Every structure is written in C-alpha cells, then in structure tokens.
Amino acid sequence: MTVAKLAPLTELEIKQLAADWYLKLDVHAPLEDYIPFLAEDGLEMRFPEATVYGFDGFKGWYDRVIGIFFDEVHTLKEVNVTPSGDEASVQVIVKWEASVWNPPAAQSQRIVLDAYQTWIVKRSPNTGKPVIATYIVDLLSYYEGSARL
C-alpha cells in the first residue's frame, strides 16, 4: 500500500488559516465552522485557563468563552512560519480586544492585550487543508488601562 505524499505547507496558506481563524472568533461563528481548522487527531490547545484535547475539548472551551466575552476584535500583528517536514511551527502575535461583564458591575470592562502564541500546523490527510494540531498561548501582554482576565 502506498501512502500519498501531502504537499508541503506554504506560508500563504498558514497566514490565511490564521486570518480566517480569528475572523471566526470575532463573529462567534457556529461551532461546526471550526471543524475544518482543527486537526482530526491529536489536537491539543493550551489556554491560560485550561488545556483541552480534541474537538470535544475545544467545544467545551468555546461554549464557555462565547458566554463571557463580547465585542471581540482580533488583529493579527505577526505570523512567522518555520516549516519542518510535513508540519510548520508558527509564532503568532495577535492583539485581542474584548468586553466582559462581571455581575453585578454597573458596566462592562474592556480587555486589550497582545497574545503570543505557538501553533503547530499540519496538512489534514482527509481534506488536504492546513489545520491546527497544537495551539499554545505562551504569554499575554496587557495594554495600559486594560481589564485583566
């Protein structure tokens, strides 16, 4: 049995993946819209508040955060791609702005920060598209006056 060789990932594909990912997060897209972005097997996502595995883990995290944050804006500042065989290590810096309301506060608060992330991106053997296999939030750098998580 011959295994088909997948084409190497391109920087353009990965930058488009990142741009599309953050657009989905901004609009709180339906959960099923994220399926094409995430590895079918071995997905690991490390957020400041939790590490989750697989699509079910992502679903639990996503359901929770879309109930907490609103008026979100993600602005990609950097996407640096380092190819390595059939995968790529990607350093992402994204400015994240979001509002949060903590009852019984009279007003919401605004969070503004740069999130430094490391992604491992692979090509899906099922779709041929690039997918996130590992997603790590390495550091949050808050802007002056920002609310805190």
Account of the protein in words:
The chain is an alpha+beta fold. It is 19% helix and 44% strand. It has 2 helices and 6 strands. It has helices spanning 11-26, 54-65, and strands spanning 44-47, 50-53, 69-84, 87-100, 109-123, 130-142. The chain has a 6-stranded mixed beta sheet, with helices on one face. Strand 5 and strand 6 form a beta hairpin. The radius of gyration is 16 Å and the shape is globular. The model has no long low-confidence stretch (mean pLDDT 94).
Tag the structure with descriptive keywords.
149 residues, alpha+beta, six-stranded mixed sheet, 6 strands, 44% strand
Provide a count of the helices: 2
Strand-residue fraction? 35-45%
The residue fraction in helices comes out at 10-25%
* Helix/strand structural class: alpha+beta
What is the terminal-to-terminal distance? 51 Å
Assign an overall shape: globular
Quote the average pLDDT.
94
Spell out the helices and strands N to C: HEEHEEEE
Low-confidence stretches: none
Enumerate the strands of the largest sheet in spatial order, edge to edge or round the barrel: 2-1-6-5-4-3
Radius of gyration: 16 Å
Let me know the number of strands: 6
Largest sheet features: 6 strands, mixed
- Looking at the chains present, what oligomeric state does this protein adopt? single chain
